Target: Ribosomal large subunit pseudouridine synthase D
Amino acid sequence: MASTKKDLEVLFEDNHFIIINKKSGDIVQGDKTGDQPLSDVVKDYIKDKYNKPGNVFLGVVHRLDRPTTGVIVFARTSKALERFNKMLRDKTVHKTYWAVVKNKPKKTNDTLIGFLKKNPKNNKSTSYSSEIENSKKAILHYKTIKSLDNYYLLEVDLETGRHHQIRCQLSAIGSPIKGDLKYGFDRSNKDASIHLHARKIDFMHPVTNKKIVITAPTPNEVIWNACN
Model:
């Protein structure tokens, strides 16, 4: 179920940013499906809450894949958008993800370095061990933080932000994410989600200079509940 204004889970809000816990099924920005994007839902929420006349400004600073859940940041002013984009370029925004996989990685923790190439026709990336034409270097660090009955919970820190990076790189080491048919998991989740959650984001607020650390609760679901 995609988000509506009534069930929007706001994790942080000030004059500069609004941070949401995205549900599976939400698209961050409009696409060819024509489904209502999360950005529009957030705009409606701001418009109603603050009785704003006319159009509401909302800047999309980063995205999450549709079946993924967790922390997503929107900028409420063009200045905040510009400054946050610079922080992303300067790699001063730190994001942590949780991923549930069935196949235990060979190493408890590791750094994965690959070269990802996106195929726009099937909206899928492939990881190569060495650089090929039109590929982009992808680096992530993971550690296994919990063993469940049939699955393993990995904590993932991204060093680069490539298309489907976590999904693709974990699949490349034989540990596709639960529910992720596109990257080799054997069956889909009933709600079409995948067990990938943007768990935490921390950064220095570019306007107030305060340290912001936001943790997004995991979905209320059996496997995720076992992770906490």
Observations:
- The chain has a mean pLDDT of 94.
